[in-house]
């Protein structure tokens, strides 16, 4: 089987599971959404008080378990980090802001489109635009530096967190919050969601599918290898929805679940997501997989996502079906400008460092 065909199949597994999870009770057009699910977990832990989006999503737990176990078995589990962690935290923070203004991560964007939500098409254009901008920085030498070996125990932090979250989900102690209405109250059965999440984690770990990477490589080196994974997600999710969720399939812009029709902010929110994803070296789903493989830099990025989710709901930045808030619009603009400044500053310092290194080599030579 060719590499592109394998990517298509791996992506298809993820897309089909997204359709199945929606059929089993997850919110509309939200079979899997990494940004939304981390946001729900943040709410369940009391980091924000938006009562309609508080739930410990077993899919996230399953994804961590699946990717950790398969990476450990195959030798891909390598504990590294130390590559500009604070910048990664900030980029993860603003990535989440953009995602919650759009109302979904890049994976949910594809799943929304596969169920007829054309607002996701506007988001897709914005996402690709943000990736294109990020690629220009890559061409100019943007890099967050090399990772180095870290203490092995650091690589087990996310699997341990997943175990603790699973205990909280099953035991439901009083200090963990669960939505009684809204998207947070809509969920597939825990055991099935956990298993299907693990399958998604395995598929994504083995394929290394990244929504940002697919478009980045096409723009940067004209390579469509990872893009076939994204096509697989869309095709299988579309087929799954037409078979399993036909009564919920609705082609158009209006009356889409957990979505709004403000095209400008759907576009700009995903510009911010695309830009941050390229500068981080991976989208939210890729960062979650990498964190489960022992990448502590990705782990810091996920913490940034969680902090961004808490901030967005505590300060009225997140959108809703009613539309985009004034605070959300302001935050997206600030986010884009701030991230551009970070990227420019990294390039300037990288060039200075490279120039200094060349001079030292010349003197020593």
Automatic annotation (TrEMBL):
Presence of keyword Transmembrane helix: yes
Keyword tags: Membrane, Transmembrane, Transmembrane helix
Pfam family, one: Sulf_transp
Domain of life: Bacteria
Coiled-coil intervals, chain numbering: none
InterPro entries in the record: Seleno_YedE, Sulf_transp_TsuA/YedE
Residues spanning the membrane: 7-25, 55-74, 86-111, 117-135, 156-178, 184-204, 225-244, 264-285, 297-318, 330-348
Protein name: YedE-related selenium metabolism membrane protein
Organism annotation: Tissierella pigra
